[in-house]
Batch of 2 targets.
Target 1
Amino acid sequence: MLNLILFGAPGAGKGTQAAKMIEMYKLVHLSTGDILRAEIAAGTELGLKAQKIMATGDLVPDEVVIAMIENKIDNNKEANGFIFDGFPRTTQQAKALDEMLAKKNEQITKMLAIEVDADELRTRLLKRAEIENRPDDKDINVINNRIKVYSEKTAILAEYYQKQGKFQPINGIGDIDEIFDRINKALEI
Ligand code: AMP
């Protein structure tokens, strides 16, 4: 299996690149943000709780997203592999993911870290707010909190995968196809 983590701050372009990678590598895309937004749209109890947290830019509790991912992996037994997008975001999530995959005799192949500086992230998120109508993109305070949460809780995961020899930085500045080419080159073995 090819199991990839798409890593990067909010607005780095993970979702955009994931869409292209699914086509190319025939992988199942698992985005915890998308799953949570679907729960909100369906008006579930989980969605209602998550909505309040997401509106501030904080993280939804680890056990909630871990259970969501485990469920999706179990429901996709025939998959060639997965693209994890927006997950893991904490060390606890990364450890849980390693354990989940190990139980299936699988592991993470690589973490692709899309690197974009903070000023460019803010510009991209405010632009995306106009296009996708995401409430958490519209407010500069929420954007700044998401970038802060990323640097405090999530950025450290680069080291976690570096220690496993799986960390692969990708320059995230440039046009979409150019960045996709860099990803493809990084995946050539
Ligand atoms: P995203 O679409 O990945 O930017 O996620 C949007 C929001 O959903 C985040 O700001 C968090 O509130 C929540 N979220 C998404 N993925 C996770 C995760 N792996 N752990 C905790 N919260 C998450």
Note: The chain has ten helices and five strands.
Target 2
Amino acid sequence: MAFPIQRLRRLRQHEGFRRMVRETRLSPADFIYPLFVVEGRNRREEIVAMPGQFRLSVDLLVKEASEIAALGIPGIILFGIPDRKDGKGTAGYDPNGIVQRAVKAVKDHVPSLMVVTDVCIDEYTDHGHCGVVKDGRILNDETLDCLRAMALTHAQAGADMVAPSDMMDGRVAAIRSELDQAGFTELPIMAYAAKFASCFYAPFRDAAFSSPQFGDRQSYQMDPANRREALREIALDVEEGADIIMVKPALPYLDIIAAAREQILLPVAAYQVSGEYSMIKAAAKAGWLDESRAMMESLLSIKRAGADLILTYFAKDAARLLH
Ligand code: PBG
């Protein structure tokens, strides 16, 4: 039975019908808002390549956190920008480091907001790589010790979930055993499981001053060409004990999100990364795209592809529109 019996336009004639048959809906509960925290007091620096996003000192971060919670967004993910960097990123696992203090402050003032921490040393290393470097190579197993230490200090500071983003092999298992040994058996891990070596992280590296000082990240982040390998990465992280798996970036990798959703029973998160945000911002500023519509359409497509959670710099703007 086809045309003229079948007319799909019938249910498109009224907004009421369109709402009735809508298959995918966004909610503020879908979002996790990424935030950058810096040393000092009363600091609020706009990130040039990410208009509308700021590096905040802890005092202002706490205010921001209450606004986010009031918008119905359930969680934030924190990135630290330390004053000092070294070869092994030791500032990243200082129990009194910037992220550790930020976590404690947010949990003290806005306990209902879930605080996730990014576990990776690149923001804290002078060479900008996500691992310990020797003779120009990124060492895997040596890096695991740094990640264990970092995750543990985040847990001790009161983080609700840790999110390793380094792409070393075996890090989820290493972090799980470290947390369990220390008694944090209830603390979940959200693994950046399929993280691609993407050009779309450029504005973030500008924000966090974390560009690699030599080479690139292709020896640990994934080749954008590889779908099967992404599914292997995801399966391994599930086996190692991940509670949520993530695909990153989001929009250029919707097929990976959809495949993950089909094959994996865990919640699937997707990270709409800095470059995805900045592209829309730039096009809107030039008058070439309607910012709100481009934002909502891209978020909707990520959810339709199968993401349960979306890490997005648009979280606040989208949540406001959804209220
Ligand atoms: C690594 C990390 C990065 C992002 C999140 N965690 C940067 C990188 O891999 O270079 C990028 C996020 C974004 O672009 O918004 N700590």
Note: Residues 118, 120, 122-123, 165, 201, 204-205, 273-274 surround PBG (CB under 6 Å).
